[in-house]
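Retry 2 of 3 after timeout on previous attempt. Resubmitting structure tokens to design endpoint.
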């Protein structure tokens, strides 16, 4: 299978890491947004 050569595997790992980082950043931004909104509404 051509996808499992060294270059393809490195690309696949890079893609997975990139998707995981994007997902993690979205969750972090969302929780930060809710945190700021809670502080703003409590004052």
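Retry 2 succeeded. Sequence:
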């Amino acid at each position: 299978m051509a996808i499992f050569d060294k270059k393809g595997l490195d690309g696949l790992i890079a893609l997975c890491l990139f998707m995981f980082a994007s997902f993690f950043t979205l969750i972090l931004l969302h929780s930060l947004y809710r945190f700021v909104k809670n502080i703003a509404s409590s004052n």
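Attempt log closed. The mean pLDDT is 89.
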